């Protein structure tokens, strides 16, 4: 599962809650910068991608548009 989140504390909280709720069935990758997301999406190694709405100058919807172009 790819977690795109600028704040490391929020990433840790989200990861821990999801790990507990899903019985540790996912491996997590954290990306904190929008600019790095394109490479992760191109690699196509994640089944699920959770995105923070605000990513610096970009928004979560900008990431959805990027994902559409890549796929």
Oligomer: single chain
Helix percentage: 40-55%
The percent range for strand residues is 15-25%
What is the string of SSEs from the N terminus onward?
EHEHEEEH
pLDDT average, as an integer?
88
How large is the radius of gyration?
A: 12 Å
Distance from first to last alpha carbon = 17 Å
Which ranges are low-confidence, i.e. pLDDT below 50, for 5 or more consecutive residues? none
Q: Widest sheet: strand order?
A: 2-1-3
* SS field, number of helical segments: 3
Instruction: Describe the main β-sheet briefly.
Output: 3 strands, parallel
Please state the overall shape, judged from the principal axes of the Cα atoms.
Answer: globular
Structural class: alpha/beta
The overall strand count is 5
Structure characterization notes:
- The protein is of the alpha/beta class.
- 49% of the residues lie in helices and 18% in strands.
- It contains three helices and five strands, in the order βαβαβββα.
- A three-stranded parallel β-sheet has the order 2-1-3, covered by helices on one side. Strands 4-5 form a two-stranded antiparallel sheet.
- The longest helix has 14 residues, at 8-21.
- The chain is globular.
Q: Descriptors for this entry?
A:
single chain, 71 residues, alpha/beta, three-stranded parallel sheet
Sum this structure up briefly.
The chain is an alpha/beta fold and 71 residues long.
List the helices and strands and how they pair.
Elements: E1 2-4, H1 8-21, E2 29-31, H2 34-43, E3 49-51, E4 54-55, E5 58-59, H3 60-70
Parallel strand pairs: 1-2, 1-3
Antiparallel strand pairs: 4-5
């Amino acid at each position: 599962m790819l977690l795109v989140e600028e704040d490391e504390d929020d990433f840790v909280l989200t990861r821990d809650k999801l790990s507990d709720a899903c019985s540790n069935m996912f491996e997590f990758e954290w990306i904190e910068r929008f600019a790095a997301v394109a490479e992760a999406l191109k690699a196509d190694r994640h089944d699920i991608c959770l995105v923070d709405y605000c990513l610096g100058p970009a928004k979560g919807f900008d990431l959805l548009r990027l994902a559409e172009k890549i796929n």
